[in-house]
């Protein structure tokens, strides 16, 4: 007999504004940093999200398909410059109307909206003024967050402040392949700090509304940190990797404080931490999320740093076939990524390790108790094309998802407070830097077709059955 999760568990798919909406300058939308970057010569491949899956015009069809696929939730993000197009802070009514329409469509099908305020796309005018590195960033974000709370109130039951502070910071300011394409460890620390504070200030704004039927959380991208050898050196590397990858974001969000060992370690590594302000720390102590979103794709293996590993850098999973190195990190004197030769890797150098969700949830329980957790993203990237009959047979995705979801259901049965799962991605969409060849969707989108025809993949039908068979009635 199948294991089952409790009745009311949320099952759905996720997407993000820049990645699926298109309509990049329609109905008064302002320019985002990603519009700006993709339209510049820094975008070597020349591929943009200008139209993408055109969710802006296809949202009714998509939400109907989600419901027909047995899904009862949908995670999407709001484009900040669609709501507040320029520095005047004047609300774009047409932008608000679009998201009201999306929410109405969700309501029609009993789909619970899970809505992220910031998924990498900030207004370009703000980017021009230093973006995340501007000490005023947190204030500006809090204003935008308050505007969203005012406009949508309890129409949105699950609000997320920011998506993946770590990944975004590392790509934008360490690897430097996301805008604004900076490579500086000092900047990583300043930007990370500003984003944590921006999150906290948005939570403070949220609490002022005293909503009864809405909650607020943060989405983190976690990889459970593991080691292949149990020695004191490996244990130190593991702790440092966990600090670097997870704890500087999840501790403030859940416990209201940065880890005690973080600042001394940063200073030892030559980071000037004078950007840390006592008044910020006091404010942080008053903010706690209602839930945690975890984008959980894989794990991180850590080993001690060695001189020959070189300088601090991030080697992300967005280079594609031919990628010379596997996804991983070098953080000088802290740790370096390790690799297990026996686990499979995808074409973008990422390890495929479905048990990660079980290990991660058990880790959250051990570190943070029973905080509700949603798996806000997980997925399987592949190059894909329809067969001669126009069908999408993505058996490899199904095989991966089955193993992953079985571990997730087991974790729930073993006492983890996990309350939902979102497949990345609801439909095929723009994959940052990779463009459109790297597909994750349960629903295929033909990007060569001006009408952006949708075709549910085999995994979409399989997911429907899985939900039905693994949820208590
Ligand atoms: C997460 C992001 C998503 C999505 C996904 C897949 O990090 O939150 O926006 O893109 O990963 O990543 P990628 O498209 O780089 O393969």
What binds here, in terms of ligands, is: 6-O-phosphono-beta-D-galactopyranose
Please tell me the overall pLDDT: 96
Helix content: 25-40%
Helical run tally: 15
Mass-distribution shape: globular
Taken together, the total number of domains comes to 1
End-to-end Cα distance, whole Å, is: 15 Å
Write down the CATH topology.
Answer: TIM Barrel
Rg over CA atoms, rounded to whole Å, is 21 Å
Main sheet: which strands, in order across? 1-2-3-4-5-7-12-13
Describe the largest sheet: 8 strands, parallel, barrel
The poorly predicted ranges are none
Assign the CATH superfamily: Glycosidases
- Portion of residues in beta strands equals 15-25%
Task: Note the topology.
Elements: E1 10-14, H1 17-20, H2 33-38, H3 55-68, E2 73-77, H4 80-83, H5 93-108, E3 112-118, H6 124-128, H7 137-152, E4 158-163, H8 165-175, H9 185-208, E5 215-221, E6 224-226, H10 232-255, H11 262-268, H12 278-284, E7 291-295, E8 299-303, E9 313-315, E10 328-331, E11 335-337, H13 356-368, E12 373-377, H14 395-413, E13 418-424, E14 443-445, E15 454-456, H15 458-469
Parallel strand pairs: 1-2, 1-13, 2-3, 3-4, 4-5, 5-7, 6-8, 7-12, 12-13
Antiparallel strand pairs: 8-11, 9-10, 10-11, 14-15
This protein binds 6-O-phosphono-beta-D-galactopyranose.
